[in-house]
Amino acid sequence: MSFANPLLLWALPLAAAPILLHLLSRRRARQVLFSDLAFLRMVHARALPRARLREWLLIAARCLLIFCLVLAYAGPVLEARGSAAAQGSEGLDLLLWLDCSYSMGYREGGKTRFDLARSGAEGLLRSLKG
User: Fold this and answer.
1) How far is CA 104 from CA 31, 42, 62, 74, in A?
2) Which of 16, 33, 101, 121 is the most exposed place for a label (fewest CB within 10 A)?
């Protein structure tokens, strides 16, 4: 696999930006003296691991998104192996899709829309040069 714009791969370290932003923007909670908060401390201690896991999963998703965007902008190109293109001569792979939904069964002039589409596709294939 190669890339159409390989210079854009230099931007891959930007995928670590969410981690850096998270680590740099962390704030310590200010302690306020108050009456006995043992129950609230217990609830907070129980919810803390879940909140941290959710936070790190969100950071990982943001990093993955940036990573995928940089790769997409770099333009990955798959090279054919073992085909006519790899041997030096150019070839053409053609795929033709026809709709086979219920609406293609509608008859126009004695033929269904599917038959009309198939005959149009066959005419297109015959018009291509070898």
Assistant:
1) 70, 64, 43, 40
2) 33
Residue 22 and residue 35: Cα distance in Å, rounded? 32
**What residues pair up with 108 in beta bridges, in sequence order?**
111
CA separation for the pair 3, 69 (Å, rounded): 14
Question: How do residues 50-72 score in pLDDT, each as one tens digit?
Answer: 888 888 899 999 999 999 999 99
Beta-carbon contacts of residue 80 (< 8 Å; ≥ 6 apart): 86
DSSP states of 55-102: HHHHHHHHHHHHHHHHHHHH-EEPPP-SSTTTTTS-----------SG
- Residue whose C-alpha is closest to residue 91's, from 130, 51, 40: 130
Instruction: Report pLDDT digits (tens) over 91-110.
Output: 667 778 888 899 989 998 88
DSSP class of residue 109?
A: T
The residue written with tokens 């965007």 in the block is: 69
- Rounded to an integer, what is the distance from CA 104 to the centroid of its chain? 32
Q: Mean pLDDT in the chain?
A: 82
